[in-house]
């Protein structure tokens, strides 16, 4: 399912105009992944991108891996940025936005947040400036170019801002624009979803070992089966239940296995997992602070 990021030259204009840069605040796993995808897809020239990280060690490793400047202190780069991706944890939001607020941020710089739980209204309030914000929720399969991301526009973002943000995440997979009211549920479903899939694959591989298969063979069978089943859902246009029926022959082994799964209440367990993750996602929002970093009373 992994695809090459070596793409033909894009028909779109560069994400950063001549003389401007694209910054990534937070060069962790997702920040690193987005930078690599953007460069390898040709969406932006390597010399137009910079990043920041919290420690000098992380900065040195990221700079060496990506071939771009990565620094702890990035204030001097903010005035030249036409787009900034904020790829930090929600708890770091106040510090980052305080830094941006005091760093001569251009009023037309597009800000893109991947912070779980942080609404565009909260981000706008914390920044205290009418910059366009786009909120995004990617997932970790972006690392192999098969991510699923969603985006929504804030109060000051126009359709062209949303289109630019969509290009960022299409460099590492699929991207869809959605209403912001869906974000907590999407965080629980596709944001956390890879973890559910890994647990299911681990359990199935263990079951294969239980019935006599070598572990590596069992894992290969499970992973490729999951990959193929997902591709069939994507390409066939048929409901998963209809595809399941194709495998379920009368009096066969599949129906026996399915009945055991139903006895274990797999449907309700998965639904409850998404429900609980949605509840937690709603609690991840950063404490709203006044522009300049002072907590609101």
Summarize the SSE layout with pairings.
Blueprint: E1 21-25, H1 29-40, E2 49-52, H2 56-66, E3 70-71, E4 81-86, H3 93-101, E5 110-113, H4 120-127, E6 133-137, E7 147-153, H5 159-170, E8 173-177, H6 183-191, H7 193-210, H8 215-236, H9 240-247, H10 253-263, H11 266-281, E9 289-290, E10 294-295
Parallel strand pairs: 1-2, 1-4, 2-3, 4-5, 5-6, 7-8
Antiparallel strand pairs: 6-7, 9-10
Helix pairs in contact: 6-11, 7-8
Care to describe what's here?
Helices cover 46% and strands 14% of the residues. With 297 residues, the protein is of the alpha/beta class. It has 2 domains: 21-183, 3-Layer(aba) Sandwich (Rossmann fold); 192-264, ProC C-terminal domain-like (ProC C-terminal domain-like fold, Orthogonal Bundle), CATH 1.10.3730. The strands form 2 sheets. Strands 3-2-1-4-5-6-7-8 form an 8-stranded mixed β-sheet, sandwiched between helices. A two-stranded antiparallel ribbon has the order 9-10. Helix 7 (193-210) packs across helix 8. The longest helix has 22 residues, at 215-236. The radius of gyration is 22 Å and the shape is elongated. The N and C termini lie far apart (49 Å).
